Input
Amino acid sequence: MNRRVFSVLVDNTSGVLNRVAGLFSRRGYNIDSLTVGVTENPKYSRMTIVVTGDDDILEQIEKQIDKLVDVVSVKVLEDGSSVTRELILAKIKTTPERRQQILAVTDIFRAKIVDVSTDSMMVELTGNQNKLDAFLSLLDEAEVELVRTGITGLSRGFN
Output
């Protein structure tokens, strides 16, 4: 199974997200990650869609997305020729004695402490999936409540 990241430029109109997601559900494909946001031009939004499958399925998905009326363009974000990032917010249960350990780990990964209470710390971290997974693996023993944005990205250069 291969993973593919699609950057899809779509019209910024109501129902577009539903039509794109509907394409996947009608064909029985799973979306691993989906992020959507308006672009520099408010007429358009950019969807970053991550899917897993064999090469034939991934090629079919790309062609089917490109056929949708609201889709302006579809690009595959390849490793090396694109930049992808993900954001996590992690609320970590802690004690005063353990707080220094968590601060040390956040410093190593250049994470930000965005909230502190007597029994927890909230950390914001941005990076590629490997970096985020490595950070979370160091918190394995801690009780963590977590949210991930999903991957977003752009191809390098203007093309």
Remarks:
- The chain is about 30% helix and 45% strand.
- The chain has a mean pLDDT of 92.
